[in-house]
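From the pipeline queue, job 12 of 40. The input is one protein chain; the requested action is below.

Action: predict structure.
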Amino acid sequence: MNDGGLERIEDPPPMPSRPSAGHKGTFGTTLVLGGATGPRRMLGGPCLAARAALRSGCGLAVLGVPESLATAALGVVPEATAIPLAIDRVCEVAAIDSARDAASAADAVVCGPGLGSPIGIEGMIDAIADLEDRPRVLDADALNSLADSSRTDLRGPVVLTPHPGEWNRLARRLGIERDAGSPEDRPRAAAELAQRLDGGSGMVVVVLKGARTVVSDGSRFWRSEAANPALATGGSGDVLAGLLGGLLAQFHPRAGAPASSPVLDVFDLARLGVSLHAEAGERWRRRHGDAGLLARELADEIPAAR
C-alpha cells in the first residue's frame, strides 16, 4: 500500500531463530549509556534499558553510568557489567573517551536513558552519533541534546525513539511542519524526520512513540495497531530503547558473527521491537488491567512475548 508517497508495510517480521550452539558472544553485547547524578538523580532509565536488552535475548549488557552510580546500578541489574564514567555536573573528556571505547567494543549502543544534561554531555552524544559502523539507539536525553545541536545528519544504522514532544523539538530545528500527534499525519512526521537526518546511509529509522506507534525509514512506514493505556508509565520508553538495542546486538549484520546467524535490517528490527514491546504490555494488561504496570514488569514479559 502507498500513503502519501510512502510505502506502507503491513506486517512485522517474525522473530528470528536462535542457533542452538550459540553462546554469549553469538548473541551480542548491548552498551547502555545513561544515568545522571543531580540535581535530579536518575538511574532507573539505563537499568531498565539494560534489563530489557537482556530480556530480549542479547548475550551481554554493559552499563556506562556516572562513576558515583556504578555500584548502585549493578545492584539493580547484577547480570550486567558497568563502566564508571567521569560525569557529575560536568561530562569530562575522559568520560567521552571511555564511552567511545566501550561503544566501539559493543555490538549495539543505547544512548540517552536518564542521561540528564550535565555540562559537556553533547560531546558524548556526538561521539556516539559518529560511530556509523555500530547500530545505535538514540533515546530521551540524547534526542534533547540532538535538538539543541547544529547536527543535520546521521549515518546509520541508527534508530531514534522520540515521543511527540521530542519529535517537535527536533522538527522545529529542522523546519519540519507536521503534527506528530495526528493519526493521519504521524507516518509523514516520522518519515520526514528520518529523511532530514539521513546523511546518505539509508539506515536512519524513526520510531514515533505513542498509541499506534509509527516506524519509518523515510521511504517506508509501518504502524502498530496497539494502544494500551497501561504502557503510559514511567520507564516504558526505556524498556523499548533497551529492547531495540538488544535486538540490534543480536540480529543486525556485524563483523565476527557466525555465518549461520540470522540478520535483519534496522527498519525490520525496529518494527519487531515495537511489536514485542506492545505484546509484552498486552500480556500484562490481560492479567492485571489497564493501569499499575511497572516498567520492570514490562521488561520481564519480553521473553514470553517473543
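Job complete. The first helix runs from residue 44 to 56.
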